[in-house]
Design brief:
Elements lengths: L13 E5 L2 H9 L7 E5 L4 H9 L3 E5 L19 E5 L18 E5 L15 E5 L12 E5 L14 H15 L6 H20 L8 H16 L1 H15 L11 E5 L4 H10 L15 H4 L2 E5 L6 H14 L2
């Protein structure tokens, strides 16, 4: 019998903490070779395709369903070296098609979750990374795990995080003001925009800053303490729109399929002070999805009353 009890044995895959999902993907693809083939989903952030092109990979796109599912029986892995799998909006599979993925390197994109669930760590060759800027009150942070050897992180200087941190912290101060100040609002919006521009031009693979690392750990502890509250918000919204039979593993956004044009609906909501994100820019490959969904944030920093007001506005405008 193996030892039972005592201090827990420490067994981990290869781990890296980086500043962004982009850095994680670039570090993963340092293990690729020019001319290899990668399967990408049609619905994705355009930066993913751009990075794959920088590493001289041959890109083939595969379709996903309206419910963000994949028909694995329709995919041909025989001439594929890499398979890129996005786990949209915190929904994770319970079973992986291990036999079909045994000959390819699988990249699990977990950017809508702060964690990588154990069931994703089963393929013969796997990589998985998060990108918590989308779902947590942080300006940087990406956890990369793999069962493969990864390069050390170069000693490059992060170009965007300091600016983004200033913007996020100024926004927090603005939200707590008794009387809102337009100059302060424009100030933090400008900082956030400049930080995003700096991230766009950054090509280097970077670690998190010390400032970011401290706040990343604090934010992670907060997220795990609020998992049930996030799921309750998902159910609250689902009681209104009734579009999902199952709950996500991590409730970050409620992907709401709507009847009308998302751009027009989002514009009306902004006029009511509701600023919803969109995933992703309307390109040829993902326009079918972009033209069907809006995404309702489920963070606990927003009150349930405001969440219900948002649902009322959506119901009013999308009729």
């Amino acid at each position: 019998m193996k030892p039972f009890g005592g201090e827990l044995a420490a067994e981990y895959p290869t781990i890296r903490l980086l500043d962004s999902g982009r850095s994680s993907l670039r570090l993963i693809l340092k293990n690729s070779k020019p001319g290899q083939t990668i399967l990408l989903p049609e619905y994705l952030c355009p930066i993913i395709s751009e990075i794959c092109q920088q590493y001289q990979l041959i890109i083939r796109y595969y379709p996903i369903g309206d419910d963000f599912s994949i028909d694995f029986s329709a995919l041909d892995f025989t001439e594929c070296d890499w398979f890129y799998w996005i786990h949209y909006f915190g929904f994770f599979p319970t079973d992986l098609p291990i036999s079909q993925l045994s000959q390819v390197a699988v990249i699990h994109d977990c950017v809508f979750s702060p964690f990588v669930p154990p069931q994703l760590q089963q393929s013969a060759i796997w990589y998985a990374f998060t990108s918590v800027r989308k779902i947590m009150p942080v300006a940087e942070g990406s956890l990369l795990l793999s069962n493969q050897v990864l390069s050390t992180i170069p000693a490059a200087v992060n170009q965007f995080a300091a600016i983004k941190w200033q913007g996020l912290e100024q926004k927090a101060a603005y939200r707590n003001m008794a009387t809102l100040n337009e100059e302060i609002e424009l100030g933090y919006l400008n900082k956030l925009a400049k930080g995003e521009q700096a991230l766009t031009v950054q090509q280097a693979i970077c670690s998190m800053t010390d400032h970011g690392l401290e706040r990343y750990h604090a934010a992670m502890a907060q997220q795990f303490s609020t998992l049930s509250a996030r799921l309750a918000r998902f159910q609250l919204v689902n009681n209104v729109f009734n579009q999902y039979q199952n709950q996500p593993d991590f409730a970050c956004f409620y992907p709401l399929k709507i009847k009308n044009n998302p751009a027009e609906l989002l514009k009306k909501l902004r006029a009511d002070n509701f600023f919803l994100p969109y995933f992703w820019p309307n390109t040829e490959k993902n326009s079918i999805y972009y033209n069907k969904f809006i995404f309702i944030p489920l963070a606990i920093s927003y009150s349930e009353e405001d969440l219900m007001r948002l649902c009322e506005k959506i119901t009013l405008y999308d009729n």
